[in-house]
Amino acid sequence: MEFYSRKWVKPENLNPYGTLFGGQLLSWIDEEAVIYAMCKLGKNRHLVTKFMSEINFVSSARQGDILEMGVDITACGRSSITLRAEVRNKITKQTIISIDRIVFVNLDAQGRSAPHEYVWQGQDAG
Q: Could you give the 3-state DSSP secondary structure of residue 29?
C-alpha cells in the first residue's frame, strides 16, 4: 500500500473529547480514495461511492498529529473499482483506521452504471 496524502489534525477536526472526529476522518478517506480511483481510471470516470465495508477504528489521533492515508486497488469490475484504505500516524506508524472495501461505481451522463474501461492486472502498481 502506498501512502500518498497527509493531514494535520487541527483544533477544528476534534470531537468534544479532544480526539479526531470520526466523521472528519471518513470524509478525508472518501476523498483520498476517490481521487486515487479517478487517477487510475483516467478520462472515463464519474465516480460515486457505492459502499464502505466495516470501518475499524484502531486508535485515536489527537491535535497536532500528522496522519498519512494509504489506498490500493483490491478488485475491478466492468463499472466498479474496489479499494482498501488505511490511515496511520506518520511518526509512530500506528494504524488509526482501516477499511477493507470501498467500492466506487462509474456513472454515465444519465446517472446509470457505465463501463470505465480500466484494466486492472490484479495488483496495484501505484
A: helix
